[in-house]
TrEMBL record:
The lineage of its organism: Bacteria, Pseudomonadati, Acidobacteriota, Terriglobia, Terriglobales. InterPro entries: Sel1-like, Sel1_AlgK, TPR-like_helical_dom_sf. This is Sel1 repeat family protein. Pfam families: Sel1. It comes from the Bacteria. PANTHER family: ERAD-ASSOCIATED E3 UBIQUITIN-PROTEIN LIGASE COMPONENT HRD3, SEL-1-LIKE PROTEIN.
Length: 380
């Protein structure tokens, strides 16, 4: 997720949530609950008997490699089995799999079919996903009015994500006349419904939006609320806020620690900030090796955009460290990146739904053709 200081919500509509449109998705490893105590043999037996709840559990296990060999095709197979049995959440999830091409070929028509079935069963989040489909025209003619209708219906039922999307539409004037005051009202509604993205958007308005009055205390409260729900961009933003305003931190290490969390989740901007802190000795001991490692990791995570920001620093630090140390640090960065390759949108979400539908934690890459086209709604 990328936000700019000149227009902090510029990519909100595009990157807010995780529709993995790019082909070749790297699966999330170890996100679901530990396999300890899970009887995979019994789980498979129950799933084969047609118990939808157990089919969903088995699908999640295959998606994360939790007690079984990681297998996206098997995950899709078992989610579809549960969907065919009429489980609305499974219908919504397999719709996402077809939309994103996870374990099945991309098929927008099937995605729409499953979203429609889930919505007809009363699943509010499926209505939100239908709104997303019509906002972008994914396999259908673009229809912003219909999208707005779906979002309003879902928001009227207390869905915070729908309220947040309505805020985005008003903020950018998509399908409606641009009205940033109305956008803020919808973000506030979303935050009241405990949507972390809505809270994050409010925190952004109060901290970096050039067209909105700033209030760091309000920004801190909204961003901390979003971060408490595990929303990675908010975790980064709180960390950055505390580094720049240490009087707001509960401890000297709180800011750097939050940035480490976000960096570990694949947020390359946090890696850049950590590199700068180590380079300058700000809040942490000055350490050229640590700075180089963070900058190098940022490049692996963020590609050309990250390189454009840290190229000079990498070259300067490389001269200081020498070829041998640079080679060892490059190897360390590559090893670390292999273990943290999949970018996440959420962390530390241990709810039952997150365990049963772990794909909701995934985020699109911040580089590439489809970066930022997002909008899939998590399961909970």
């Amino acid at each position: 997720m990328v936000r700019t200081t000149s227009n902090p919500l510029l990519v909100s509509v595009k990157l807010v949530r995780a529709l993995l449109l790019a082909i070749g998705v790297t699966l999330l490893v170890g996100y679901a609950a530990s396999a300890e105590g899970i009887d995979i043999t019994q789980l498979k037996a129950d799933a084969q008997k047609g118990y939808a709840s157990r089919q969903i559990e088995l699908a999640a296990a295959y998606f994360t490699g939790n007690g079984v060999t990681q297998d996206a095709k098997q995950a899709a197979y078992w989610y579809q089995k549960a969907a065919e049995a009429g489980d609305p959440e499974a219908e919504n999830e397999i719709g996402f799999f077809y939309q994103a091409g996870i374990g099945v070929p991309v098929d927008q028509a099937r995605a729409l079919h499953w979203y429609q079935l889930a919505a007809a069963s009363g699943l509010t989040r499926a209505k939100v996903n239908l709104g997303v489909v019509y906002v972008w025209g994914l396999g259908v003619a673009k229809d912003e009015d219909l999208a707005m209708q779906f979002f309003r219906e879902a928001a009227s039922r207390g869905d915070g994500a729908a309220a947040s999307y309505l805020g985005d539409l008003y903020y950018f004037g998509i399908g409606v006349k641009q009205d940033k005051a109305a956008a803020e009202t919808w973000y506030k509604t979303g935050a009241q419904f405990h949507d972390p993205v809505a809270a994050y958007n409010l925190g952004t308005l109060f901290s970096v939006d050039a067209d909105h009055p700033h209030d760091l205390r309000k920004a801190e409260a909204f961003l901390r609320s979003s971060a408490a729900d595990g929303y990675i961009p908010a975790i980064h933003s709180v960390g950055l806020l505390l580094v720049n305003h240490p009087d707001l931190a509960t401890s000297p290490q709180e800011g750097p620690s939050l940035l480490e969390t976000a960096a570990s989740a694949g947020y390359w901007k946090s890696s850049v900030v950590l590199g700068a802190l180590a380079r300058d000795g700000k809040g942490v001991p000055a350490d050229s090796k640590a700075a180089y490692l963070h900058f190098r990791t940022a490049v692996l995570q963020g590609g050309e955009l990250a390189m454009s920001l840290v190229k000079y620093d990498l070259a300067t630090l490389a001269k200081r460290l020498g070829t041998q140390q640079v080679g060892a640090l490059d190897s360390d960065a590559n090893t670390w990146y292999r273990l943290h390759r999949t970018p996440l949108l959420f962390v530390n979400k241990d709810s039952d739904k997150r365990q049963r539908f772990p794909a909701s934690a995934l985020a699109v890459s911040t580089a590439g053709l489809h970066a930022g086209q997002l909008l899939y709604v998590p399961a909970s």
